[in-house]
Design brief:
150 residues; alpha+beta; seven-stranded antiparallel sheet; 7 strands; 29% strand; elongated; signal
């Protein structure tokens, strides 16, 4: 019995040691960049950013935005912008990297065309403030972290 175990161990050691060495590549964790008005990261062609726009000094102008994209050009963006008055905008857009038209949805502005991020602001409708809190929690957390560190 001891002889069978010894043969099995030697056979296993021989098979394992004859196998080619496996190379393990460690994937680097993407670095997060903080700027004066946002946070962004990119890795392998994928990118994402979120932040504040406008003034950070407590004035009425400002906004929020979030966007993400893939290496093939597919991406999406959403945000609120403008001022507290009647000139604010809010938008959302999704597009494909193959040059086809993007989809957009907005109560006060719209964008069209893949890679074309030109918005056309309109007056904000009366129900704007009813929908202002439909901001993803991840965007709010990123903005909160950014403001807490400044």
């Amino acid at each position: 019995m001891a002889r069978s175990i010894l043969i099995a161990l030697l056979y296993g050691f021989t098979v394992c040691s004859a196998a080619p060495r496996k190379v393990v590549e460690l994937n680097d964790i993407p670095k997060v960049q903080l700027s004066g008005d946002g946070v962004s990261t990119s890795f392998g062609g994928y990118h994402a950013s979120a932040g504040l726009g406008g003034s950070l000094d407590g004035g009425p102008a400002g906004g929020l935005f979030a966007e993400a994209g893939t290496p093939d050009g597919t991406g999406a963006s959403a945000g609120l912008g403008g001022s507290v008055g009647s000139k604010g905008v809010h938008f959302s857009q999704a597009g494909f990297g193959d040059g086809t038209a993007s989809e957009s949805d907005s109560l006060s502005s719209s964008s069209a065309g893949a890679g074309n991020h030109v918005s056309r602001p309109n007056k904000r409708p009366a129900e704007f403030y009813d929908n202002i809190f439909n901001i993803p929690i991840s965007v709010l957390q990123a903005v909160n972290q950014l403001l807490g560190k400044s």
